[in-house]
UniProtKB/TrEMBL annotation:
Keywords tagged on the record: Iron, Metal-binding
The keyword Membrane appears for this protein: no
Cofactor entry: Fe cation
Protein name: Pirin N-terminal domain-containing protein
Origin: domain of life: Bacteria
GO MF annotations in UniProt: metal ion binding
Organism: Aerolutibacter ruishenii
Binding annotation for Fe cation: 57, 59, 101, 103
Pfam families according to UniProt: Pirin (PF02678), Pirin_C_2 (PF17954)
Length: 236
Protein backbone atom coordinates (compact mmCIF):
# COMPACT_ATOMS: atom_id res chain seq x y z
CA UNK A 1 0.00 0.00 0.00
CA UNK A 2 1.28 3.46 -0.95
CA UNK A 3 -0.13 6.41 0.98
CA UNK A 4 -0.04 9.89 -0.55
CA UNK A 5 0.26 12.99 1.62
CA UNK A 6 0.29 16.15 -0.55
CA UNK A 7 1.81 19.27 0.95
CA UNK A 8 -1.41 21.24 0.47
CA UNK A 9 -3.39 18.74 2.56
CA UNK A 10 -1.24 19.15 5.68
CA UNK A 11 -2.53 20.94 8.73
CA UNK A 12 -1.64 24.65 8.82
CA UNK A 13 -1.37 26.79 11.93
CA UNK A 14 -0.37 30.46 11.91
CA UNK A 15 0.04 32.24 15.22
CA UNK A 16 1.81 35.56 14.76
CA UNK A 17 5.49 34.65 15.06
CA UNK A 18 4.94 31.01 13.97
CA UNK A 19 3.86 29.59 10.61
CA UNK A 20 3.65 25.79 10.83
CA UNK A 21 2.57 22.94 8.55
CA UNK A 22 1.80 19.60 10.19
CA UNK A 23 2.09 16.30 8.32
CA UNK A 24 0.42 14.54 11.28
CA UNK A 25 -1.97 15.66 14.02
CA UNK A 26 -0.29 18.07 16.42
CA UNK A 27 -1.45 20.74 18.84
CA UNK A 28 -4.49 22.61 17.48
CA UNK A 29 -4.49 20.50 14.30
CA UNK A 30 -6.28 17.18 14.74
CA UNK A 31 -7.22 14.64 12.09
CA UNK A 32 -7.88 11.09 13.27
CA UNK A 33 -6.76 9.79 9.86
CA UNK A 34 -3.30 11.30 10.38
CA UNK A 35 -2.09 10.37 13.86
CA UNK A 36 1.32 9.14 12.71
CA UNK A 37 2.93 6.37 10.72
CA UNK A 38 4.36 3.52 12.77
CA UNK A 39 6.70 5.11 15.35
CA UNK A 40 6.90 8.32 13.29
CA UNK A 41 4.62 10.72 15.14
CA UNK A 42 5.41 14.30 14.01
CA UNK A 43 6.84 16.16 11.03
CA UNK A 44 6.27 19.87 11.54
CA UNK A 45 7.63 22.39 9.07
CA UNK A 46 8.07 25.57 11.10
CA UNK A 47 8.96 29.14 10.19
CA UNK A 48 9.74 31.32 13.20
CA UNK A 49 10.06 35.10 13.07
CA UNK A 50 13.31 36.81 14.17
CA UNK A 51 13.91 36.70 17.91
CA UNK A 52 10.79 34.59 18.57
CA UNK A 53 10.42 30.97 19.59
CA UNK A 54 9.08 28.32 21.91
CA UNK A 55 9.56 29.14 25.62
CA UNK A 56 10.58 26.39 28.08
CA UNK A 57 8.19 23.44 27.96
CA UNK A 58 8.36 19.80 28.97
CA UNK A 59 8.37 16.52 27.02
CA UNK A 60 8.80 12.88 28.02
CA UNK A 61 9.36 9.61 26.18
CA UNK A 62 9.87 11.01 22.69
CA UNK A 63 12.82 11.11 20.27
CA UNK A 64 12.97 14.65 18.83
CA UNK A 65 15.04 15.64 15.79
CA UNK A 66 15.47 19.19 14.49
CA UNK A 67 16.55 19.75 10.86
CA UNK A 68 17.30 23.36 9.89
CA UNK A 69 16.74 24.50 6.30
CA UNK A 70 17.43 28.23 6.60
CA UNK A 71 18.59 30.49 9.39
CA UNK A 72 19.72 29.40 12.85
CA UNK A 73 17.84 27.71 15.71
CA UNK A 74 18.94 28.09 19.34
CA UNK A 75 18.26 25.18 21.70
CA UNK A 76 18.59 24.89 25.50
CA UNK A 77 17.40 22.08 27.76
CA UNK A 78 17.42 21.03 31.39
CA UNK A 79 20.08 18.34 30.83
CA UNK A 80 22.60 21.04 29.95
CA UNK A 81 22.32 20.32 26.24
CA UNK A 82 22.26 23.31 23.96
CA UNK A 83 23.65 25.10 20.99
CA UNK A 84 22.77 26.76 17.70
CA UNK A 85 21.66 24.54 14.81
CA UNK A 86 22.32 25.71 11.25
CA UNK A 87 21.62 24.27 7.79
CA UNK A 88 23.45 20.99 7.32
CA UNK A 89 23.19 20.14 11.02
CA UNK A 90 20.74 17.81 12.79
CA UNK A 91 19.97 17.85 16.50
CA UNK A 92 18.68 14.92 18.56
CA UNK A 93 17.04 15.18 21.96
CA UNK A 94 15.76 12.06 23.68
CA UNK A 95 13.23 13.32 26.21
CA UNK A 96 13.43 10.10 28.26
CA UNK A 97 11.77 10.34 31.67
CA UNK A 98 11.30 14.06 31.17
CA UNK A 99 13.16 17.14 29.99
CA UNK A 100 12.37 20.85 29.75
CA UNK A 101 13.64 22.68 26.70
CA UNK A 102 13.26 25.84 24.66
CA UNK A 103 13.86 26.66 21.00
CA UNK A 104 14.29 30.19 19.65
CA UNK A 105 15.29 31.85 16.43
CA UNK A 106 18.96 32.67 17.04
CA UNK A 107 18.71 35.76 14.80
CA UNK A 108 17.08 39.11 15.49
CA UNK A 109 17.01 39.90 11.77
CA UNK A 110 16.14 36.79 9.72
CA UNK A 111 13.52 34.05 10.10
CA UNK A 112 14.45 30.43 10.77
CA UNK A 113 12.91 27.59 8.74
CA UNK A 114 13.21 24.05 10.10
CA UNK A 115 11.61 20.65 10.48
CA UNK A 116 10.81 19.21 13.88
CA UNK A 117 10.47 15.43 13.84
CA UNK A 118 9.21 13.17 16.63
CA UNK A 119 9.53 9.40 16.88
CA UNK A 120 8.19 7.24 19.68
CA UNK A 121 11.08 5.50 21.48
CA UNK A 122 11.50 1.75 21.92
CA UNK A 123 11.85 2.19 25.71
CA UNK A 124 10.25 4.43 28.31
CA UNK A 125 11.63 6.53 31.14
CA UNK A 126 15.26 6.31 30.05
CA UNK A 127 17.71 9.06 30.96
CA UNK A 128 17.36 12.12 28.72
CA UNK A 129 20.12 12.62 26.13
CA UNK A 130 21.22 15.19 23.57
CA UNK A 131 23.53 15.34 20.55
CA UNK A 132 24.09 17.53 17.50
CA UNK A 133 25.90 16.62 14.30
CA UNK A 134 26.91 18.32 11.06
CA UNK A 135 26.55 16.46 7.76
CA UNK A 136 28.53 17.64 4.77
CA UNK A 137 26.25 18.24 1.77
CA UNK A 138 28.76 16.55 -0.54
CA UNK A 139 28.09 13.27 1.29
CA UNK A 140 24.44 13.41 0.20
CA UNK A 141 24.82 14.56 -3.42
CA UNK A 142 23.29 11.72 -5.40
CA UNK A 143 23.67 9.30 -2.48
CA UNK A 144 21.96 8.34 0.78
CA UNK A 145 23.56 9.46 4.03
CA UNK A 146 22.47 8.13 7.43
CA UNK A 147 21.37 11.06 9.60
CA UNK A 148 19.97 9.04 12.54
CA UNK A 149 19.95 5.34 13.38
CA UNK A 150 19.63 2.92 16.31
CA UNK A 151 22.45 3.74 18.73
CA UNK A 152 24.16 5.79 16.00
CA UNK A 153 25.05 2.98 13.62
CA UNK A 154 26.48 4.00 10.22
CA UNK A 155 27.48 7.41 11.52
CA UNK A 156 24.03 8.82 12.30
CA UNK A 157 22.72 10.37 15.49
CA UNK A 158 21.89 7.68 18.11
CA UNK A 159 18.10 7.47 18.30
CA UNK A 160 16.35 4.99 20.61
CA UNK A 161 14.14 3.23 18.09
CA UNK A 162 14.43 0.63 15.33
CA UNK A 163 14.37 3.37 12.71
CA UNK A 164 16.77 5.08 10.34
CA UNK A 165 16.57 8.58 8.94
CA UNK A 166 18.38 8.96 5.62
CA UNK A 167 18.89 12.04 3.49
CA UNK A 168 19.87 12.76 -0.10
CA UNK A 169 20.33 15.80 -2.34
CA UNK A 170 19.36 15.31 -5.98
CA UNK A 171 19.99 17.63 -8.92
CA UNK A 172 17.94 17.19 -12.09
CA UNK A 173 18.68 13.77 -13.54
CA UNK A 174 20.51 12.45 -10.47
CA UNK A 175 19.05 9.20 -9.16
CA UNK A 176 19.16 7.03 -6.05
CA UNK A 177 17.43 3.80 -5.06
CA UNK A 178 16.47 2.16 -1.77
CA UNK A 179 15.34 -1.46 -1.22
CA UNK A 180 11.90 -1.89 0.34
CA UNK A 181 11.30 -4.74 2.79
CA UNK A 182 7.65 -5.75 3.07
CA UNK A 183 8.12 -6.28 6.80
CA UNK A 184 8.95 -2.61 7.42
CA UNK A 185 7.38 0.79 6.77
CA UNK A 186 8.88 3.74 4.91
CA UNK A 187 8.02 7.43 4.84
CA UNK A 188 9.44 9.65 2.09
CA UNK A 189 9.32 13.42 2.66
CA UNK A 190 10.44 16.06 0.15
CA UNK A 191 11.98 18.94 2.08
CA UNK A 192 12.74 21.22 -0.88
CA UNK A 193 12.82 20.93 -4.67
CA UNK A 194 11.13 18.39 -6.90
CA UNK A 195 11.63 14.66 -7.56
CA UNK A 196 10.05 11.71 -9.26
CA UNK A 197 9.48 8.73 -6.97
CA UNK A 198 8.45 5.46 -8.63
CA UNK A 199 6.60 7.41 -11.30
CA UNK A 200 5.01 10.00 -8.98
CA UNK A 201 6.12 13.64 -9.16
CA UNK A 202 6.59 15.19 -5.71
CA UNK A 203 7.41 18.76 -4.70
CA UNK A 204 8.39 20.42 -1.42
CA UNK A 205 6.23 19.26 1.48
CA UNK A 206 4.81 16.24 -0.38
CA UNK A 207 5.22 12.79 1.14
CA UNK A 208 4.61 9.11 0.41
CA UNK A 209 4.15 6.27 2.90
CA UNK A 210 4.93 2.65 2.03
CA UNK A 211 3.43 -0.28 3.98
CA UNK A 212 3.55 -3.94 2.93
CA UNK A 213 5.58 -2.90 -0.11
CA UNK A 214 8.56 -4.83 -1.47
CA UNK A 215 10.87 -3.98 -4.32
CA UNK A 216 12.80 -0.78 -4.98
CA UNK A 217 12.12 2.87 -4.29
CA UNK A 218 13.65 4.82 -7.19
CA UNK A 219 14.09 8.60 -6.96
CA UNK A 220 15.20 11.06 -9.65
CA UNK A 221 15.77 14.78 -9.26
CA UNK A 222 13.74 17.22 -11.38
CA UNK A 223 13.68 20.93 -12.11
CA UNK A 224 16.28 23.50 -11.11
CA UNK A 225 18.47 23.35 -8.05
CA UNK A 226 18.84 20.33 -5.79
CA UNK A 227 15.98 18.53 -4.12
CA UNK A 228 16.47 17.79 -0.40
CA UNK A 229 14.78 14.49 0.46
CA UNK A 230 14.36 12.54 3.71
CA UNK A 231 13.51 8.84 4.01
CA UNK A 232 12.39 7.14 7.23
CA UNK A 233 13.02 3.38 7.38
CA UNK A 234 10.69 2.27 10.20
CA UNK A 235 9.77 -0.79 12.19
CA UNK A 236 6.13 -1.79 11.89
Amino acid sequence: MIIERPSADRGHVRAGWLDSHHTFSFGHYYDKAWMGFGPLRVINEDRVEPGAGFPPHRHANMEILSYVLEGALSHQDSTGGGGVIRPGEVQWMSAGHGVEHSEFNASQDAPVHFLQIWLQPDRVNAAPAYAQQAFEPVERHGAWATLASPEGRDGGLPIRQDARLLGTLLAAGEAVEYPLDGGRRYWLHVVTGEIEANGRVLAAGDALGFADESGTLALTGRGTGRADVLLFDLTR
